[in-house]
């Protein structure tokens, strides 16, 4: 099963690199540059457009849509809805990143509506955000996970069961990222133990992952393979980036190294470094 | 007095690192990524939200609010007012960065109203911007200081007197940055002689400082200590970043080194390198 | 003629460095930070402002206006029109970057109107975008050039003729960038063979070039010299940045190196590395 997980991720990466998917992102202005560069690092192409009058044409020529609610406003909400409507009609994969769901009513409500009304394919967030959308979270700490929600070895089976249940209810693939990532569809849940703590010390690691998930969703055979490929790729890239850190380096250098690692990320590296297991 | 200034700054940095304040920023989209990474570098957490319908919830869960008018628009002005109103009610510290005040009527008016109507704690800008809000500036050069307004050894006593007077009138702490920074409350003014000329060759050095000032204001005992801690920290980080510059490096590398220096910045470094004196 | 092209570019760079032009940019939020840092790298100063109520004052104190439609919305379109109107009145040079023209009706229409109604000085885009504005393109691939539109040695004379014709019709200087760049006014077309393929693997290489073109337009004797200076400078900087790439580096490092190369770019480097020829 570990071998299968590695193989899925490595094949999914190859598919992105060979297909050069065009990914329409409506994403927050904090990390949008990193999202664009992360997509380019994997040989995909980004296009950003959030104006309701523009998104219909733009999403039509793309291969996937990524919705990230990190800096929501009334205008971009309208753009997200119009784009999601069009992408659903065209059967394009849609990735939803509910940044800060649970931290404000507007975020929770907007993400919930996007999830309920349109054909979201993959839901990617931290455990607090995913729980907030399920109506089961006490609170989030801004855009960070609530410590009480962290997946550990002790509660991994429980997290996996929650992820499968959410996937079944919402008819999506769920990717819940943290120190241990959980990726699940209705029937199968995988734990991914890649990544570096430094990813939490830059802004945008989660947003970049969601953007990449759009590229994987456009290229992989199934949404589960796409989510697994994206999560493993980002985790392995995080480790490779961390391994380049030298004296004097900090989160500025780590951000650069992370893009570099994505740029150079190979099938062979995923086979060597991926740590994936199915959680029954 | 120099020792006292160092001690204040170093203690303030320790407070940020141990308290991990959550800082709500309504800031311009030019340098917002740098602001987020600067906060993460000091173990603080950023959250960006500018939609009026979102800010009430967001600012309530934060420890400080930073308002930066670098790319104002009608929607974000409404967001700033709503957030400032809520933060005032909750007695959260508010930092105002009047980017480009004096360069347009909208900027001058918006910053003046924010300063007059809400409980701004710390006002951080260059001398032209601070003078524009006091109604005494001839003009600013866009977002840069007017050469006629630069604080030098020759006019330092005058700048300090102006800063103390402004602090008294507006009931804020004032941090006026430049080659020599002046930080003052109604009674005391300090000169800080840290920093590198390279900080003027990247975008965002001032914005990052204002964002960090929010983290310091959430953590320090007094607003004066917070402003002094932030100004000294950014100045020393700028020097440390400049010391890493090698042949071929330019402002791209300097930007990375500056974040790295903030990431690694320590109490001991502030004690070694801070150059602070009270100006009587 | 090759010597003349080098001399034009090198003199134009010197003019930017000595005049420190203030450049008003209304540009997309994806690459706006890179645009600001690119301008600062060449000793120019950026100011970003897109609110209709703000742009009149801001553009009045600037030396050039850059309009980039990469993330258009209704509010920024109004800002672009107001700024262009004011800049035209003041006879400030205006650079238009029609990002994604051809990819959506909103983009094509907005860029066409800006081109038709205001005194645009320099039009800078890829061949698909420029053709879309001329009404002759089949389609664009998002923000990337359509492979059918790429300028090669085989069709260079044709591209040059098209560029001259467009320059004549629209009364602008045209800078069409790609593997071979074509810069033309109504009478003369130049081919520039500088640059690195890595520029296509970061977001913002084109946007940065357009921002820099604003600085050159504010400083050079003629719009043709400005466009040639900007295109050659970015191309040579791209090559110098690529030459610093080491094992493990990717597009994260390349982005940093590109800013660094602009920061250090000299008259002598342009004389050594520029590859410019007139295309008759």
From TrEMBL, chains A, B, C:
Pathway: Cofactor biosynthesis; thiamine diphosphate biosynthesis; 4-methyl-5-(2-phosphoethyl)-thiazole from 5-(2-hydroxyethyl)-4-methylthiazole: step 1/1. SUPFAM superfamilies: Ribokinase-like (SSF53613). It catalyses: 5-(2-hydroxyethyl)-4-methylthiazole + ATP = 4-methyl-5-(2-phosphooxyethyl)-thiazole + ADP + H(+). InterPro entries: Hyethyz_kinase (IPR000417), Ribokinase-like (IPR029056). ATP binds at residues 124, 177. CDD domains: THZ_kinase. This is Hydroxyethylthiazole kinase. It comes from Cryptobacterium curtum (strain ATCC 700683 / DSM 15641 / CCUG 43107 / 12-3). The lineage of its organism: Bacteria, Bacillati, Actinomycetota, Coriobacteriia, Eggerthellales.
């Amino acid at each position: 099963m570990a071998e299968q997980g590695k193989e899925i991720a490595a094949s999914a990466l190859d598919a992105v690199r060979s297909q050069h998917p065009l990914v329409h992102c409506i994403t927050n202005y904090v990390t949008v540059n990193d999202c664009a560069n992360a997509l380019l690092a994997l040989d995909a192409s980004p296009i950003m457009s959030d104006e309701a009058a523009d998104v219909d044409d733009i999403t039509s020529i793309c291969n996937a849509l990524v919705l990230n609610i990190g800096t929501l406003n009334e205008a971009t909400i309208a753009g997200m809805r119009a784009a999601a409507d069009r992408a659903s009609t065209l059967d394009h994969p849609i990735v939803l990143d509910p940044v800060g769901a649970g931290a404000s009513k507007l975020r929770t409500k907007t993400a919930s509506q996007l999830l309920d009304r349109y054909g979201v394919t993959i839901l990617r967030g931290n455990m607090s955000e995913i729980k907030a959308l399920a109506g089961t979270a006490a609170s989030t700490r801004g855009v960070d996970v609530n410590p009480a929600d962290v997946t550990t070895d002790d509660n991994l089976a429980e997290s996996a069961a929650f992820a499968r249940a959410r996937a079944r209810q919402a008819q999506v693939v769920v990717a819940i990222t943290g120190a241990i990532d959980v990726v699940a569809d209705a029937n199968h849940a995988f734990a991914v133990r890649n990544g570096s703590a430094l990813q939490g010390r830059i802004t945008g690691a989660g947003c970049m992952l969601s953007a990449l998930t759009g590229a994987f969703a456009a290229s992989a055979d199934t949404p589960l393979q796409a989510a697994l490929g994206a999560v493993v790729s980002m985790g392995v890239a995080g480790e490779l980036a961390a391994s380049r850190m030298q004296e004097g380096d900090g989160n500025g250098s780590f951000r650069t190294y992370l893009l570099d690692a994505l740029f150079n990320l190979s099938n062979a590296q995923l086979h060597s470094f991926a740590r994936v297991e199915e959680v029954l």
